[in-house]
Write a structure and sequence with these properties.
This protein has about 200 residues and is mainly β. Helices cover about 5% and strands about 50% of the residues. β8 and β9 form a beta hairpin. The protein starts with 11 loop residues before the first strand and ends in a 5-residue tail after the last helix. About 20% of the residues are buried. This is YceI family protein.
């Protein structure tokens, strides 16, 4: 009988690769529409242990890097009406545990504390290991693993405003927000390369 091959990063410290990760949110806008945005600046580390359930994840997003593709809307989202980035410049996630999931192959549930707008609440990310590959630029010394994850939050739980009523009913921004993460972790700290190409993480 052949043994099942191990999947996912081996024990050690792995780093979020912000150049090849997408940190996406999708919200209702003007009651009937949907708008998608990202956070362009992020950093994170994953400490993988021999017992995967004891591994630790920490990710920090720059709240001011919110980007929906419309400058005026992004400025409004940064304001005190919504994220209030002057007083709450970071969005943080710190894991508290994980467990296998039956939702699909290589799936697991990642539990953690999410901090937005100065409020910290527990969340669960339905996650999946997608695959692995050498780095495109430095394949000899850098290796990456790819993950997908998603969850849903309510802005009101974190004290984030909704922009008020619109004349045809409903609120400017819906309370429910879907979060979709497409993440690459790598075994090398990305900061030297990011500085080299002029990217601010």
């Amino acid at each position: 009988m052949t043994s099942t091959p191990e999947i996912g990063p081996g024990p050690g410290t792995w780093y979020l690769d912000p150049l090849h990760s997408s940190l996406i949110f999708v919200a209702h806008y003007l009651r009937f529409g949907r708008v998608q945005g990202t956070f362009g600046r992020a950093r994170g580390q994953v400490l993988v242990t021999s017992d995967p359930a004891r591994s630790e994840v920490e990710v920090v997003l720059d709240a001011a890097s919110v980007n929906t593709g419309v400058g005026a809307r992004d400025a409004h989202l940064r304001s005190a009406d919504f994220l209030d980035v002057d007083h709450h410049p970071e969005i943080r996630f710190a894991s508290t545990g994980l467990e296998p999931s039956r939702r699909g192959r290589h799936s697991f549930r990642l539990f953690g504390d999410l901090t937005i707008h100065g409020t910290t609440l527990p969340v669960t990310l339905d996650s999946q290991w997608v695959g692995e590959s050498p780095d495109y630029v430095s394949p000899a010394d850098t290796y990456g693993h790819f993950f997908s994850a998603n969850t849903r939050i309510r802005l009101s739980d974190f004290g984030v405003g909704d922009g008020g009523e619109v004349p045809w009913g409903g609120r400017l921004v819906g309370d429910t927000v879907d979060i979709v993460l497409e993440v690459r972790l790598q075994n090398q700290d990305p900061r030297p390369f990011l500085q080299q190409i002029g990217h601010t993480p």
